[in-house]
Amino acid sequence: MSFVPRLIRHSPRTLLLACAAAATMLFISEGTYYWRAANLLESREEISQVLMASRIGIAALTAISLLALFFYLRQAAVVQRQQDHLNALTQADHHRLELEVARRTAELTELTHHLQTAREDERSRLARDLHDELGALLTSAKLDAARIRSRLGTTAPEAQDRLAHLVLTLNGVIALKRRIIEDLRPSSLGNLGLVATLEILAREFAQTSGLQVHCELQAVPLDAEADLVVYRLVQEGITNIGKHAKAREVWLGLGQQGDQVVVTLRDDGVGFDPQARPGAAHGLMGMRFRVLAEGGRLDLVSSPGHGTTIRMQLPCGAEPGAGGGGDDDGRGDQRPVA
After folding, report:
1. Structural domain range at position 278
2. Which end of the chain is more exposed for a tag (fewer CB within 10 A), N or C?
3. d(CA 170, CA 137)
4. Which helix (H) or strand (E) element contains residue 308?
5. Contacts of 224 (CB under 8 A, 6+ apart)
6. What is the pLDDT of residues 198-236, one digit of tens each?
7. What is the CATH number of the domain that holds 294?
8. Alpha-carbon distance 22 to 15, whole Å?
9. Which residues, in sequence order, are CB contacts of 131 under 8 Å at separation 6+?
10. How far is CA 32 from the centre of its chain?
11. For the chain, what is the domain count?
12. Buried b vs exposed e over 284-314: b needs ≥16 C-beta within 10 Å?
């Protein structure tokens, strides 16, 4: 504390310099403070301006984005309405085409049924005419030949030989007539039933073709019309097997699965591609429409080198045995036909 009085007494100039230096430092400090404060205020104003410009830019960008989104949503709504309209038109056209296809299919099925019925009626008429008219003529000719042969006795051996040959020829014509009648309208179908008729058909085919036919047949509940459909399917199937299949064995099945009667015809022949032979499928197509007319379904599975399988399903009709024949115990038959 005694230093300051001594400094005042002994070095007043030094004290004045020190006070001047302190005042100068204080002035410089205050100037620096005010300068920094002024710069800070300018920086704040600049920052405020930048922030304001950014806010304005963000607001403008947001407005532009919302406007673009609005136009996009409106365009999307227009496109969606157009797409919905096109879908509705397409759906209506598709529905109309489905109805048209169903109507045409029903017409074709009805026409096929009508043509097949007319064909069967014509076959029945021809079979009846052959049986009545031609049968009477052949029987009369055979009786006349027998009477002439009895009257000649042993007086004309050459004539006897000719008459014997004539009788044999008449017998062959009568057998041919019976075979034609059976092909036109199988009498065994009405007399013996479906199972026995299919067995006869399979046995005759095995004899004429030399193939081994395996039959697994059971009495099934079908009416007379359905019996005829099954018989014609099997008849046409084995005819095609004999002509084209080059098979060694054939399997024929008839049975009931639930409320459906199932018929299968399978061979181990060369097979074919059903899609590659459209011209050869007319008979199959006609049979398919005929089965469809009976409320059934016909499927064909074949490929080159793997044989052919025909499968038909028909709804059950009459009681078993009413039009189906077969064994009395209803178990059918299961044996190969040589």
Report:
1. 194-337
2. N
3. 10
4. strand 308-315
5. 189, 190, 323
6. 999 999 899 988 999 999 999 999 888 888 889 988 988
7. 3.30.565.10
8. 10
9. 177, 181
10. 96
11. 1
12. bebbbbbbbbbebebebebeeeebbebebbb
